[in-house]
Amino acid sequence: MEEVLVSGLSRGELKTHVANGKIIRIGRGIYTWREPTPMEVARILQKRWPGIMIAGNSAVQLYSKKEMTFPLKFAYRHILSGSQWFEVERTRQKTRFTFEGIPVQNPLLAAAAVDDDLAVTMLETRYQNRRGKQAIEKDLGCIARVPARVRELVNKSAVGADSEAERKVVRELQRRGKKVQVNHRIGPYLWDIVVGKVAVEIDGYDFHKAEDLGTFVKDRWKGNDAALRGYTVLRYSGSCVKHHLVDVVQQISEAHKGRTNFGSLAHESVWRWHWLLARCEAEPIYG
């Protein structure tokens, strides 16, 4: 880091070198010999002002496993002047989150600073798989008063889902006002999606074609167990979700309401209409 920062020059020399393009002014009293990377700027500021945290859109980018972009967003307990390279907002927030030793804003509060699509993508990345629900509850517990928008974003997100196919189904069900539980335990087994008394599995072919006999047997007993506990069991492939999402969600919704439309296309012989079986080039369009 020291080789990037400019030191030992007088004010006049700094001004001249900036004018000649030999050095770059990052902020008040901060100059570099070359254009720094976003992470280098974050480290420079953290060293200058310990406790400053990456926040807002920059934190969302980190949690989404993307490269940060300028201007970086920070939060700090004191007022600081920013520049074209970074912006700082004053905050009383405390953080227990770090990235490579640099404090980072609570992901849930960072999500509230960006638009819904970015926020939802980040939350689903951060809180995926069966540990996601536990993790998000822990992070919510770090916030004294959870803003209404944060709760709204959490409710829009497919927290705990293992795959994009599962997330698509969860989002669509939530848009229909359904209360969805992800990676939910019924008896001794975890189910991908549970809506009321409907238990849903999204089976990816690449995973299940390699399953051993033990897994095959377990899945049969898992389905039987849920059925005997009073659940309607529905199973779909990844291709069903990819090409027939509307039908998948409609069928789950109908099962949840207990009113199934057996006259719909989804209840005709599947080989007549399913993309994979009928060799269609695109998802059929129907009402």
From TrEMBL:
Pfam families: DUF559 (PF04480). Gene3D superfamilies: VSR Endonuclease. InterPro entries: DUF559, Restrct_endonuc-II-like. It comes from the Bacteria. Residues 167-254 form the DUF559 domain. This is DUF559 domain-containing protein.
